[in-house]
Amino acid sequence: MLTMSESLMENLQSIENDALQSIEQAQDLKQLNNLRVKYLGKKGPIQEAMKKMKDLSPEERKELGQVSNKVKTSIQEAVTNKQEALEKAKIEAQMAKEKIDVTLPGRKPNLGSPHVLQQVIREIEDFFIGMGYSVAEGPEVELDRFNFELLNIPKGHPARDMQDSFYITDEYLLRTQTSPVQARVMLERNGKGPIKIICPGKVYRRDDDDATHSHQFTQVEGLVIDEYITLSDLKGTLAEFARKLFGEDRKIRFRPSFFPFTEPSVEVDVTCGKCLGDGCSMCKQTGYIEILGAGMVHPNVLRMSGFDPETYQGFAFGIGPDRVAILKYGIDDIRQFYTNDLRFLKQFNEEW
Ligand code: DAH
Question: How far is residue 166's CA from residue 173's CA, in Å, rounded to a whole number?
Fold first, then answer.
């Protein structure tokens, strides 16, 4: 028969063995914490055994107390070690899962590219900047005064009918041309030249959209004002422009025309890219294709914007990038520029 003390001693030993074994087998931190509470908590088996010590002699109690402390320490240590091991294993598992294979080919992000009209505008800008021009901009919601009146198109002038407009109020409209930027820049300069600018941007007209018309399109206005500017300066500039944009073998010709803000006014044609001037179906047998309007700045326009026509002359032109793109790339429907069909747009992909 074991004495009370011996049986308690054995009991503590088996608690330790049980505990160490269960701790060793714990699968995760939650299970481990439950075991810690189970064995070391206030209602645990060690505390239970200690309660039974009260009937023992002081020596036996001392001895058992030491053993129970050792058992507690040993269980606590086992819990701590196991906890570290489980945490380490968890991190290792996570690292293994999240490992990056640097040898895999990368995924190329789908980048956009500039719109074909933007590319053409940039090409036009590059050319004129190279000739010493600077780029000016104006608002798309424009005053009637700048869009028409300061360009020698007073209210009731028949030329207003040529440019059906989107009016917002009696005073404000969506600009029908980029020419109003001319007037804005001239007024800023207080009658002092020289001026050499181009003004690219969007313009709007009340048109029914079809293959050759759009209620929105782009224009690049050009304006040069200085002393001793002549029509031959305009011709030389535009001839060079046509060669750079369309090819060295291209020529231009002037045809008399009318614009209220220029006098004389001309329509400018470039030799057809298909037949180079011999005549074919593309140019309707004329050998030429119209690319822009231009002329010498009308004295009224100079005067209204503060320039003395006795001292200053100038030329102006209005290029249509939509038309330039159509001729360069053989596009047969202007609506393609604005309907955002990726199959169309991707043909003009260009790296920035
Ligand atoms: N603004 C004109 C238009 O939209 C184009 C134009 C023609 C501009 C002749 C000019 C010019 O500066 O001189 O039809």
Answer: 6
Q: Which of 144, 232, 221 is nearest to 186 (CA)?
A: 221
Q: What is the 3-state secondary structure (H, E, C) of 9-28?
A: HHHHHHHHHHHHHHHHHCCC
* Sign of the torsion angle spanned by Cα atoms 303, 308, 311, 315: negative
Q: In this structure, are residues 177 and 112 in contact, taking their beta carbons and an 8 Å threshold? A: no
**What is the mean predicted confidence (pLDDT) over 345-350?**
85
**Residue 293, ligand 1, Cβ within 6 A:** yes
Tokens of 223: 């304006």
Arithmetic mean of pLDDT, 167-194: 96
Question: Could you tell me the distance, in angstroms and rounded to a whole number, from the CA of residue 294 to the centre of ligand 1?
Answer: 6
One-letter amino acid at 51 equals K
Task: Give the position, in ligand 1's atom list, of the atom nearest the Cα of 318.
Answer: 8
Residue 201 near residue 219, CB atoms below 8 Å:
yes
How far is it, in rounded angstroms, from Cα 219 to Cα 294?
13
- Tell the residue number behind the tokens 């009937």, with chain if given: 55
For a ligand 1 pocket test, name from 150, 261, 319 the mutation site with the most ligand atoms within 8 angstroms of its C-beta: 261
Q: The pTM is what?
A: 0.70
End-to-end CA distance of the chain: 95
